[in-house]
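dude i think i finally got it to work??
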Amino acid sequence: IEALDELGVNLYFFASFGSSTGYPAEVAIKTEGEYFTEIKKWREWHANGGSGSGFHLGFRPLNTDRVLERLRAARRKAPREKTRVEQDHYFVLTDGDNTLVRYTSRGYRYSYSKTGGKRYRTEQDAEKYRQQLLTKGRHQADIWKVQRIEGTASFQV
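look at this
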């Protein structure tokens, strides 16, 4: 009960002998001791001839999505530390005149300049992406070739 309370989920005791007897209709329970105290009060009331069906326990918030989000956030891995690497060259996918920026759901985007497209740190990275495009059968994927560009570029590794 205490662990649930720390997460923001409160346990409530709803008794059938509420308000008309002066007893509150619902009681927020924060600890196990309070839980057993409320059960004991209900048993005493019921043993003394109290009428009614009984009691029930409920949780608030009823929608526990926010609680689950908090739990999941605690288990997430810390982001991997990346370092910036400066290079004097990089690789692009080109069709001879234009460089590939990215593929979209309706085709692809390209840049008219050699320096305006997506940059790859190694030739293997560029070739790997090119092979993925060919494997997926993307529109005109076969026109792109890997080309080395001399110029400074920085990458997060």
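The beta strands are 10-15, 26-29, 55-60, 84-94, 99-104, 107-111, 145-156.
im so relieved honestly
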